[in-house]
From TrEMBL:
Organism in which the protein naturally occurs: Leuconostoc fallax
GO MF, any single term: transmembrane transporter activity
Domain Major facilitator superfamily (MFS) profile: 12-456
Topology term for the membrane: Multi-pass membrane protein
UniProt GO cellular component terms: plasma membrane
Domain of life (superkingdom): Bacteria
Family annotation (InterPro entries): MFS, MFS_dom, MFS_trans_sf
Protein's UniProt name: Major facilitator superfamily (MFS) profile domain-containing protein
One Pfam family in the UniProt entry: MFS_1
Transmembrane segments: 9-30, 50-70, 77-101, 107-127, 139-158, 164-185, 197-216, 222-239, 260-281, 293-315, 327-344, 350-368, 389-410, 430-451
Subcellular location per the Swiss-Prot or TrEMBL entry: Cell membrane
Record-linked PANTHER family: MAJOR FACILITATOR SUPERFAMILY MULTIDRUG TRANSPORTER MFSC (PTHR42718)
Length: 457
């Protein structure tokens, strides 16, 4: 590959990465606005979480289309469509006078991000030399993982000083920069259309994701059980289509690869934790500690910055040393930091939150992108597109599930505990973090067993 082509590859990844960055930034930036939104729109914790959940749900439903889209549309065309859709969503939310209109804008932003995320990794996996793949994946992950570093602070400053509406309008220049850069470096290539879109599979996937999230937010109600039934029905539809069609939305045979399954699960657990803590900690700091959205964002800043900056370094470690050391060491540090964070929530020292979060994010930064790279490297070239779609789809869905799950746990404790509202919020937050802590310990143990085998070494 010539230097010119390498430069264009890097700029193309940057252009799409900037859009993906904006998508993740706006996700975490909105988390610190929840107490404000609850007051302004007179809604409960279980309702306000849909600002994030509907966004992640839309991404999760859009990402499975990526394999079909890459086969039938040019990268340039997909990039332009995603960018313009994102811009429209930003303008709608900047002007949104109601909660429903706010959700509509979030839906459009989810469609755009659902195209941008797999598009960025598709370019890396297809065009980057294999010897540079770990590093390029780390750089690609950096563009999205650095967003949580500044997202809460960005959202906190604007919510405190201006209004949450400005979170959206200030991203318009960022999207325009991405659009101009992408138009310059992403060429148009004629694509020979192959296959038709499997609408039945897409319908089943939509039922599965939507039903699951509604069930989690309506646990214990008749509506919740009905939603669960639809989720199970959707699972059967998607599975049946995948097993009986030649061209499916996603070829789930890639899940028969045990190594792929293990590191996919580890990646999703890390995503659970990232989204769970971005919901729990900012809200706890505002509701229990009585601090502003700006302070809540500042508490998250050091850990998220460290974790983001480690992403490209962790990819370099994988290229040079292999997967074992960065993944196991990273998961171990994550477990230590998360355990400390769970224990000190009831004490509420802000410096303790910062320290524990930094320890956790150092571990996450070492393990997160390497789990994806290792899992994707275990599949064949023919199934790489399907593996990429599964990773990105379940990444967003797991984030939506994590947000919905922790919000539901906190809301249930708040409504049924004999404690006061603030103490119930602390107890609910500790319980939510403990549930996620158990999942982290399990995946650490499974990865340790995997790397003990001679083949893995």
């Amino acid at each position: 590959m010539t230097n010119n082509k390498q430069m264009n590859l890097g700029l193309a990844i940057l252009a799409i990465g900037v859009m993906s960055f904006a998508g993740v930034l706006i996700e975490t930036a909105m988390n610190v606005t929840f107490p404000t939104l609850m007051q302004q729109f007179n809604i409960a914790t279980a309702d306000v979480q849909w600002v994030t959940t509907i966004y992640l749900l839309t991404i999760a439903v859009t990402v499975p289309l990526s394999t079909y889209l890459f086969r039938n549309y040019s990268i340039r065309g997909l990039f332009i469509f995603a960018n313009l859709t994102f811009l429209i969503g930003l303008l709608i939310d900047f002007l949104a006078p109601s909660f429903l209109l706010l959700l509509a804008g979030r839906l459009l932003q989810g469609v755009a991000t659902g195209i941008a995320l797999p598009l960025m990794f598709h370019i890396i996996l297809v065009y980057a030399p294999i010897r540079q793949r770990g590093t390029m994946m780390g750089i690609g992950t950096l563009t999205t993982s650095i967003a949580p570093a500044i997202g809460p602070t960005y959202g906190g400053i604007l919510t405190t000083q201006l209004s949450w509406h400005f979170i959206f309008i200030f991203l318009v220049p960022v999207l325009l920069l991405s659009l101009v850069l992408g138009l310059k470096v992403i060429p148009y290539h004629q694509v020979e259309k192959t296959g038709r879109l499997d609408m039945v599979s897409l319908f089943g996937l939509g039922l599965l994701f939507t039903g699951t999230l509604i069930f989690l937010s309506q646990i214990g109600t008749l509506f919740g059980w009905v939603a669960l039934a639809f989720a199970i029905w959707g699972t059967w539809i998607f599975w049946h289509q995948s097993r009986h069609r030649d061209q499916t939305l996603i070829n789930i045979k890639v899940l028969e690869n045990r190594t792929f399954r293990l590191f996919l699960l580890g990646f999703l657990v890390c995503q659970f934790l990232l989204l769970g803590i971005s919901f729990v900690l900012p809200n706890l700091i505002q509701i229990v500690n009585g601090k502003s959205a700006f302070i809540a964002g500042l508490v998250m800043l050091p850990g998220a910055t460290v974790g983001a900056l480690l992403s490209p370094l962790s990819g370099k470690l994988l290229d040079n040393w292999g997967a074992k050391r960065p993944i196991l060491f990273g998961l171990g540090l994550s477990s230590l930091g998360w355990g400390l964070l769970t224990l000190i929530l009831g004490v509420n020292p802000l410096w303790g939150f910062v320290f524990s979060h930094v320890v956790y994010m150092v571990g996450s930064g070492l393990a997160y992108s390497n789990l994806m790279t290792t899992g994707m490297s275990a599949v064949s070239d023919e199934m790489r597109g399907d593996g990429n779609a599964i990773f990105n789809t379940l990444q967003q869905f797991s984030g939506a599930v994590a947000t919905s799950l922790v919000a539901t746990i906190i809301n249930v404790v708040q409504n049924h505990s004999q404690l006061g509202y603030q103490k119930a919020t602390v107890l609910g937050s500790q319980l939510a973090l403990f549930v996620l802590f158990l999942a982290l310990i399990v995946i650490l143990w499974r990865c340790w067993l995997f790397f003990r085998t001679p083949k893995a070494s």
